[in-house]
Amino acid sequence: MRIFVDCDPGIDDALALAYLTAHSDVELVGVGTVFGNNSVDVTTGNALRLLRLYGRPDVPVSRGAGRPLVQPPTLAESVHGANGLGDIDVPEADAVPTTESAAEALVRAARSAPGEVDVLAVGPLTNLALALGLEPELPRLVRRVVVMGGAVRVPGNVTPWAEANTANDPEAAEVVFAAGFDLTLVALDVTMRATAPAAWLDELKTLEGDRACTTSSFLDFYVGWYSKALGERTCAMHDPLAAAVLLDPALATEALEVPVRVELHGTHTRGLTVADLRSNAADDDRPAVRLVTEVDTEAFFTRMMDALR
Ligand code: BDR
Ligand code: CA
User: Residue 58 sits in a domain of what CATH number?
Assistant: First the structure.
């Protein structure tokens, strides 16, 4: 499998990279970075450090957008730490970012192997929207896209209605959802039901080696934030769940094919992902996306642990 990852590392982005790098059948053709959990300078440095930590320093990292298409950026230091990785010092990488932007790198990867590259997008969708501007045929050139983003039938996480990746660039998300990609949406609808059990977090602490120990240290910060928010020792596994669904679509045990739009003008609801859930939604002229509504969480947590061993 050839995969281009677009991310804003970020602690759960780190787990997604850990998941993918643990699979020998995954060829990471590139990693693009975007503002989101932190500034794009920080997320780019983190992507390079994480690829070194997870044994893939050879994967090219391309710096992407530093701000959303329209609005000013907001960052998430309270959730991911001032350095985006739970304030854990991760050794700097020798590698440096490529001279291409993330959007250019994605377009090049897609053009060089039409129909073969899958995209995992786990940050604000700014780079994908910019890539569509460079190559309008992108939805036909990539094989499929799995997006972590949105909150369709559940509350948001940064506003009562909006999920962080969508709220961080609603215009970009709207462009991407309209573009006609074979697109799977792993939204808060499922990620907030795949929260890490305390026993799983404890088991992770028994693993040896840098891969597991450093990841477990990032998680301490993230778990601290989620535990306060949810009232129990846990954390959400948004981005690695999307990575796992990309590698094995059967992990998504139920899904709906629905058109999804992003609210751009609502007084209180900007960034809300609005799905057409009517039974005759086929009349809608917006291409449908696959909205995951159930996942096999037990299998996911087993595989996530294996990926950190
Ligand atoms: C998403 O927002 C980011 O903070 C996380 O990394 C994840 O991609 C969850 O809403
Ligand atoms: Ca992310």
Answer: 3.90.245.10
Residues with CB under 6 A from ligand 1: 10, 12-13, 37, 76, 79, 122, 148, 157, 163-165, 238-239
- Structural domain containing residue 61: 2-308
Domain count, the chain: 1
Residue to substitute in 126, 128, 238, 246 for testing ligand 1 pocket (most ligand atoms within 8 angstroms of CB): 238
Angle between helices 11-21 and 238-247 (to 10 degrees): 20
Using the mean position of ligand 2's atoms as its centre, give its distance from the Cα of residue 38 in Å. 10
Residues marked active site are found at 8, 238
Averaged over successive runs of 10 residues, the pLDDT of the chain (309 residues) comes to 98 98 98 98 98 98 98 96 97 97 99 98 99 98 98 97 98 98 98 97 97 97 97 98 98 97 96 90 85 98 98
pTM for this model (two decimals): 0.98
26 conformational bin, left if phi > 0, alpha if psi -120 to 50, beta if neither: beta
Instruction: Determine the pLDDT at residue 282.
Output: 67
SS3 at position 284: coil
